[in-house]
Amino acid sequence: MQKSKKVTAIRLLFLLLFLFLVLQGKFGLWLALFTASLLLAPRFGRIYCGVICPIHTVMIPTERLARRFKLQKSEHPKWLDSRVLPWVTLGISVAVRIIGLRMLKMNIPILLIWLFASILITLRYDQAVFHDLICPFGALQGLFDKSGKPLPWAEKGE
User: Fold this and answer.
1) How many C-beta atoms lie closer than 10 Å to residue 138's C-beta?
2) Cα separation values, 13 from 54, 78, 99, 153, Å
3) Is 77 part of a structural domain of the chain?
């Protein structure tokens, strides 16, 4: 099996695990997996972003579809370049999660919301716009990643 096919299979397995946990109301288990990936990031890099993240997994075929039908713009809005937005989206995500749990008594699956947002954004712009300029989870991964290593399993253009 080729390396890219193995990576795709691993990504799909993690996507299925994510969907299963969300449907079972066990979103906290996914957050535990994310936290574990943060602890591994200083040594192994952004493992979560490369193979575990369900957002990344759905953005790959979304981008192919968007390119095929010429839906994507070549330029993204300049205000996204501030590098502050991922931290703002992280703060909003944490606030929504806390408000959901404490005040509304609801387990709001914030990652599922970001997954749908990433699809919409990737239909319009290159997936790097979401990865590099918006993703709240990538902000934390980047903070913990001290390896300086490129993702060895990433395909060109990811």
Assistant:
1) 23
2) 10, 36, 31, 16
3) yes
Read off the pLDDT of residues 94-148 as tens digits, 9 standing for 90 and up.
999 999 999 999 988 898 999 999 999 999 999 999 999 999 999 999 999 877 6
Rg (CA), the chain: 16
Q: How many domains does the chain have?
A: 1
The domain of 106 spans 3-144
pLDDT digits (tens, 9 = 90+) for 60-71: 999 999 999 999
Is pTM, for the whole model, over 0.85? yes
Q: At what angle are helices 110-124 and 54-68 packed, to 10 degrees?
A: 20
**Residue in this structure with the two tokens 């535990």, named with its chain if needed:** 32
Tell me the DSSP string of 87-140: HHHHHHHHHHHHHHHHTS-----HHHHHHHHHHHHHHHS-HHHHHHHT-HHHHH
CB 99 within 8 A of CB 150: no
